[in-house]
C-alpha cells in the first residue's frame, strides 16, 4: 500500500484534503519541500495537488514527477475543469482530475491509486503477449467507424487464426452488438463497480463470444450509464485486454470526449475514417490537428477513405492533402454494407471477395499485419447498387 502526499500552497486546504480522504498522509505547502519529499517517495505513492496550486505550476510539478518518480500517480483537484485542462492532463498523464466539491470521488480515486501496488500483481499483463490496440475514430457521425471496426476485427481474427476483441466505446449509442448479432450477458458497464480491480478473469466475464478468435465487449444498453465508465477504467481495461488478445479493436463515439481520448491515448494505431464530403473533411482536418497538438505521434495515425468511389468532385489527393497524410485504405460504397449490418453479419465474413471486404482486408494486411498488399484483384462495385 502506498502513501499519500497532499500539496497545496495554503496549508489548511491541503490539511482539509487529507482529512476528507481519511486523514492519513503528509501535507506540504512549500514547493521546495515538495521537491525534497519527491526524493523519498516510492513508486506506490500518490501525490494529490490541491485546488489553490496555480494550473501551470501543477502541470510543472506533474512533469517533474513523471521524470523523477515515474511510478508516482498524480491526482489534481480543481475548482474549475475545462477541456484544455483535461487535454493537458492527458498529455502529462495525470491519474485523475477531480472537482474540489467532490470529496467522495477524491476519496475513491485515492483509494484506488494507493491500492494499485497491492492489486498490481494479479492484474499484471502477461509479458509473453502484448497485443496491439487499434482504435477506429472519426469526430463526425456516420463516417463508417462501426462498419470498419467490426469488419477489421473479423479480418484480423481470421476464423480463429488470431485472438481479437472488439470493444464498443460508443458508450451511449453503440451498435457493435447489432452489427455482429450478439446477445450479450454483460456490457462494459459491468466493469464499473470493479474500479481498478479488473484483471484477466474479470475481463473474461465481460466478453461476449462471436466466433472463433473473435470476442466483444459491448456498450451499455442504457445510454445514461455511459457517464459512469471513467476514462481511467477504459485505459485500464484496454491494458488488461492487450495482455489477453493479439488485437484489441476499439469502436468509438463521434466525439472528442474523455472516454475516447483515453482510448486514443493507449492506442498503437489510430485509424481515422472519412467520407468524401466537405463537412467530413473539415472535421478530419480539425481532428488531425487536435491529435497532433495532444502529442499523438503522426506515425500512429492511418487514414481510411470510406465510400471512396463516390463521384462527388473530391479527389483522393485532396483528402490526403487535407489530412496531412496519405490514404492507407479505400472502402467503396455499397448497399450490401447496410444490408450486412441489418443481418448482423460482418460483410468480410459474408462475402470475403466483395470490394468492400477487399478494401478492408487490404488495409488490415498492409497497415496492421504488415503483410503487404493482397494481390488478388478486387471485384468492381456494381454502380447500380450504390446507395
Ligand atoms: N462503404 C459503405 N457503403 C454503404 N453504406 C455504408 C458504408 N459504410 C457505412 N455505411 C452505412 O452508413 C451508416 C453509418 O455507418 P457506421 O454506423 O459504420 O458509421 P459510424 O461512424 O459508426 O456512425 P456513428 O457515428 O453514428 O456511430 C450505416 O448505415 C452503414 O451501414
Ligand atoms: Mg458507430
TrEMBL record:
<dbReference type="InterPro" id="IPR050625">
    <property type="entry name" value="ParA/MinD_ATPase"/>
</dbReference>
<dbReference type="Pfam" id="PF13614">
    <property type="entry name" value="AAA_31"/>
</dbReference>
<protein>
    <submittedName>
        <fullName>AAA family ATPase</fullName>
    </submittedName>
</protein>
<feature type="domain" description="AAA">
    <location>
        <begin position="132"/>
        <end position="290"/>
    </location>
</feature>
<dbReference type="GO" id="GO:0051782">
    <property type="term" value="P:negative regulation of cell division"/>
</dbReference>
<dbReference type="GO" id="GO:0005829">
    <property type="term" value="C:cytosol"/>
</dbReference>
<dbReference type="InterPro" id="IPR025669">
    <property type="entry name" value="AAA_dom"/>
</dbReference>
<dbReference type="GO" id="GO:0009898">
    <property type="term" value="C:cytoplasmic side of plasma membrane"/>
</dbReference>
<dbReference type="GO" id="GO:0016887">
    <property type="term" value="F:ATP hydrolysis activity"/>
</dbReference>
<dbReference type="InterPro" id="IPR027417">
    <property type="entry name" value="P-loop_NTPase"/>
</dbReference>
<dbReference type="GO" id="GO:0005524">
    <property type="term" value="F:ATP binding"/>
</dbReference>
Amino acid at each position: 500500500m502506498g502513501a499519500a502526499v497532499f500539496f497545496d500552497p495554503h496549508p489548511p486546504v491541503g490539511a482539509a484534503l487529507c482529512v476528507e480522504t481519511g486523514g492519513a498522509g503528509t501535507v506540504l505547502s512549500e514547493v521546495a519541500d515538495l521537491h525534497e519529499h519527491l526524493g523519498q517517495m516510492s513508486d506506490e505513492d500518490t501525490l494529490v495537488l490541491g485546488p489553490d496550486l496555480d494550473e501551470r505550476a501543477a502541470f510543472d510539478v506533474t512533469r517533474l514527477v513523471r521524470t523523477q518518480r515515474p511510478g508516482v500517480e498524480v491526482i489534481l483537484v480543481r475548482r474549475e475543469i475545462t477541456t484544455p485542462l483535461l487535454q493537458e492532463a492527458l498529455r502529462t498523464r495525470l491519474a485523475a482530475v477531480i472537482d474540489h466539491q467532490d470529496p467522495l470521488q477524491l476519496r475513491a480515486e485515492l483509494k484506488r491509486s494507493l491500492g494499485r501496488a497491492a492489486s498490481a500483481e494479479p492484474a499484471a499483463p502477461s509479458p509473453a503477449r502484448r497485443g496491439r490496440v487499434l482504435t477506429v475514430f472519426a469526430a463526425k457521425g456516420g463516417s463508417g467507424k462501426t462498419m470498419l471496426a467490426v469488419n477489421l476485427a473479423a479480418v484480423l481474427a481470421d476464423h480463429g487464426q488470431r485472438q481479437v476483441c472488439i470493444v464498443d466505446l460508443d458508450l451511449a449509442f453503440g451498435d457493435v452488438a447489432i452489427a455482429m448479432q450478439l446477445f450479450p450477458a454483460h456490457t462494459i458497464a459491468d466493469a464499473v463497480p470493479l474500479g481498478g480491480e479488473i484483471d484477466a478473469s474479470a475481463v473474461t466475464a465481460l466478453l461476449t463470444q462471436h466466433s472463433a478468435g473473435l470476442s466483444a465487449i459491448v456498450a451499455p444498453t442504457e445510454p445514461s450509464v455511459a457517464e459512469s465508465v471513467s476514462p481511467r477504467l477504459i485505459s485500464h481495461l484496454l491494458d488488461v485486454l492487450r495482455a489477453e488478445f493479439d488485437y484489441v479493436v476499439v469502436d468509438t463515439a463521434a466525439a472528442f470526449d474523455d472516454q475516447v481520448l483515453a482510448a486514443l491515448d493507449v492506442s498503437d494505431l489510430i485509424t481515422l475514417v472519412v467520407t468524401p464530403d466537405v463537412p467530413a473533411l473539415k472535421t478530419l482536418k480539425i481532428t488531425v490537428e487536435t491529435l497532433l497538438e495532444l502529442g499523438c505521434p503522426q506515425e500512429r495515425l492511418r487514414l481510411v477513405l470510406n465510400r471512396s468511389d463516390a463521384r462527388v468532385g473530391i479527389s483522393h489527393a485532396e483528402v490526403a492533402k487535407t489530412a496531412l497524410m496519405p490514404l492507407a485504405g479505400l472502402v467503396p460504397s455499397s448497399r450490401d454494407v447496410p444490408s450486412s449490418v441489418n443481418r448482423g453479419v460482418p460483410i468480410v465474413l459474408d462475402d470475403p471477395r466483395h470490394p468492400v471486404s477487399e478494401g478492408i482486408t487490404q488495409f488490415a494486411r498492409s497497415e496492421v499485419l504488415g503483410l503487404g498488399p493482397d494481390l488478388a484483384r478486387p471485384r468492381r462495385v456494381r454502380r447500380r447498387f450504390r446507395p
